[in-house]
Amino acid sequence: MARKKEISNQNIEKKYFFSYLNDVANSRKINKEDIVNILEESFKNTITKNLDPEAEIELIMDYDKEIIRLVNKNALVLSDEEYEKTINENEGMKTCAISLTEAKQLSSSITEDGDSILIDIEFEKLPKSIFLPVKQQFVQKITEMVRERTLSKYSKLKGTIVKAKLISITKSGYIYEIEEDQVHAFMPKQLSANSKRRNELGVLEEVYIEDIAEEAKDTQIILSTISNNILNEFLKREIPEIESGEIEIVRIARHAGERSKVAIKSNSETLINGLGALIGKSGNRIEFISKELDGEKIDVIEFSEDPVKFIVNALSPAKTVSVLTFRSKKSSKIVVVVPDSHHSLAIGKKGINVSLASELTRSRIDIYPYSKAINDEMNIVWNGNIADQQELELIELEAKNKLNSSEINSSNTHKTRKEKRKINPNYLLDEFDRDIQKYNEDFGLIEENYSIEKTNKINNVTNKDRMLNTLDANSIFEETLSDFENKISDPKTEIDNSYTKEELTQIQEEIKNYKIDNDLAAFAGLKDFDFDVNDADWDDEENEK
Fold first, then answer.
1. Looking at the 3D structure of the chain, how many domains does it have?
2. Strand 332-338 and strand 365-369: pairing?
């Protein structure tokens, strides 16, 4: 019977669906046309495979009007009884068939079952048996597209530096998002340097593309911060002479996050000082790269074809006396004799310096202090960067003087307050002055906060005004003496009957002859002590008693 009879149908608005598709397109950086094609293919595959091989599925989308239609151009018309039976057995057949009665209502050209007609498929009525496989296929195809695009692009970027931010931490490593494409990348813990930023989510940093894992299920891009190549790339980027070929990086040895050694040589006759050009004025070039690597210390040394000279350079900043080679049938080793004072420097913290020097020169290096070498009766050959015994003695003397100076400074720095008092008698007075000053500051603050203002009985000034001047012991004594004499000479003043006239006369004479010990007053801090005796609330104190 004839199929392929087409009828008009209603548009189906699916705004929520457009929002979802837009999010996928934006986050995955995929064209909208590709999104439509992938979705349409997912519906076709699911319906033709599981329901009707003859179904012709088409997805029609209008992004401007936000209209989406999913149609079957070859839906089968079934008798009403057959349609009900089919739908009851498999609800998904609604996408592939229509009852004869419904078909006649849609088109007058439909006369019997077995015809075909175009029908719209309602998204809301899609059964899970259809929708879930479609969704799974859609997600899978989007993932495959992103993987293929990532593989194509980042295979060419292997061995370069990119910017990425940390978005998640797992037991095995760190998940990053590359800034340019927002694609995920993985940094195994064994490829991660000890960085202060390593546990800070959202921090943007420069990382090295170590490898591309084609068979990985999740992230394909493998990142690293410990590779020697990341330092090599930084140097190329920041040092124009390296990029131009005037300076050549021969070898790099690196303990990521701690210290690196870079051996270079100059390929230009016009470039006299290759080390200076690489390090930069005041070390600014190499310092910038060090900061980019979280403060990793970078030693730049001159490469030499002479193995002895190269080893001497590699052990910098330590000085060397002698470089001796010991060979056996199975192996060979290099014994480097250094001044006793440079023994720790040559080895380095946790053995890093000698380890990097060994890696850089590709030799096994043992460090011997000069005194041990002499005791072991080694044959000292002065082939290092110390010319002779006299220069060695000067180095040791300088180190000894420096150590003594350091010990003295350290001892002075850590003296206790008690020891300072013993050494400097004025320490106590200085401390007392500071306490008095602190008291005056605190007292002035209280006066200002509470606005306490009292009348000064002697000078008729406010206490706040009084606080602006320091106490003068002579004036206080004179005022007190004058007040006492007035009370004695005034006949109206009541005098304590316990004193005789002769006793009072004697007291008066002794007071006149009394002299203030200004040195004692100064020692006690009275000249700087701002306190008004008239401010003391003696009456309140007596009442409390």
1. 4
2. parallel
